[in-house]
Design brief:
single chain, six-stranded parallel sheet, six-stranded mixed sheet, binds NADP nicotinamide-adenine-dinucleotide phosphate
């Protein structure tokens, strides 16, 4: 594995938001990356980070960053690596501009996920998608949707071992997934909201690209089809998914369990600083997984699977859970960036 000789300076776009604050937390003391520039909207640019941000995390703002003056997100800097936690209404063009200037942009926004030249990366599942990029020439790497990541981690072992034909999924998504202001117009206590605008289309399209195969420089999507219903629930962090799957052939419970239990990341991914020991764990407690108990497994980077049982309509059904701002956003993006660095995709600073 190629670890950098010295910390790599990185910029963060969207530093004031919910995901941006997670990046700030995770990058504080990161062994490979040093946050040197924070950027947000024109509303925040020019202000000290501590003054502009509505800090919503339990730990204090890292002192070195509290004093940093925010840049506008369209200002191009010298950093070869840029993380983006920008609102999707502006992410598309801004990320393209940073990538065109030679930076590698690792984004959480939806805008470029399905672009042909953009890896939709879950490092344990499809690290070869990085080959869509030209080393050291910049580009965009996309983190999948925060619910799709958990779905893809749970499905990848089944796709590899048996083939997955059809998937029916209902999500129960945490409040933090809506961003700092996303639920202003809703009552969330004693309630759930059976609409997350645009979310179902992401679940229905992204898994096929993630689980696809790279052939002749393009991703050939996996042949599975997905039907999704997405629901916001009064949980702080952690997206829980109820999943039914139809597989390409009949499979016994033991084979299914073995597929999940034997699933490991490639060696160079396992060694990355943010990689969890196990990307997927199978939980045997009858009432697992639960967000409060299991979202932080593997430092919030492990997806858990439980309640595995026969499905009277498809073949099997189960529940899977993953942390939306760690595995589903900032943590997943850090792991993707670490892999890009380790595999030599980053231009020398
Ligand atoms: P958020 O809390 O609403 O934060 C949005 C960020 O975008 C803020 O830093 C904001 O800066 C910036 N921004 C807004 N308008 C801008 C503009 N015109 N120009 C430049 N910057 C602008 O949202 P979030 O939940 O952190 O999500 C960020 C991105 O990650 C979104 O694309 C979202 O879909 C995606 N995502 C979120 C999650 C999650 O669990 N929350 C998971 C996966 C992916 P100001 O403070 O200056 O307005």
């Amino acid at each position: 594995m190629r670890a950098p000789a010295r910390p790599i300076p990185v910029a963060l776009l969207g530093a004031t938001g919910s995901v941006g604050q997670r990046f700030v937390q995770l990058l504080d003391g990161h062994p490979w990356f040093r946050l040197t520039r924070l950027a947000a909207s024109e509303r925040s640019a020019g202000r000290r980070y501590a003054d502009a941000v509505r800090w919503s995390r339990p730990e204090p703002i890292p002192s070195a960053l509290a004093e940093l003056v925010l840049s506008p997100a369209d200002e191009l800097g010298p950093e070869a690596l840029v993380f983006s936690a920008l609102d999707a209404s502006v992410a598309g063009e801004l990320e393209s501009a940073h990538a065109a200037s030679g930076a590698l942009v690792v984004t959480n926004a939806r805008n470029h996920r399905m672009d042909a030249g953009v890896p939709l990366l879950v490092p344990e599942v499809n690290p070869d998608q990085l080959e869509l990029l030209t080393p050291c020439r910049g580009g965009i790497v996309a983190n999948p949707n925060c619910s799709t990541i958990g779905l893809a981690l749970a499905l990848a072992p089944l796709e590899r071992a048996f083939g997955v034909r059809r998937v029916m999924v209902t999500t129960m998504q945490a409040l933090s997934g809506a961003g700092l202001d996303g639920l202003r117009d809703h009552v969330v206590e004693d309630n759930l909201i059976p609409l997350i605008a645009g979310e179902e289309a992401k679940l229905e399209s992204e898994a096929a690209k993630i689980l696809g195969t790279l052939e002749g420089g393009i991703v050939r999507p996996a042949s599975l089809s997905v039907s999704a219903t997405c629901v916001r629930v009064p949980v702080s962090d952690g997206h829980t998914l109820s999943v039914s799957v139809e597989l390409d052939r009949p499979v016994e419970l033991g084979e299914l369990r073995a597929a999940w239990e034997s699933f490991v990341a490639p060696d160079d991914v396992r060694e990355l600083p943010t990689a969890p020991e196990r990307p997927v764990v199978l939980l045997d407690e009858p009432d697992a997984p639960q967000p409060r108990l299991h979202r932080d497994l593997g430092g919030g980077m492990t997806a858990s699977v439980g309640r595995v049982r026969p499905c009277p309509l498809f073949d099997w059904k189960f529940v899977t859970l993953s942390h939306n701002t760690l595995r589903g956003a900032a943590g997943g993006a850090l792991l993707a960036a670490e892999l890009a660095v380790a595999r030599g995709y980053l231009a020398a600073p």
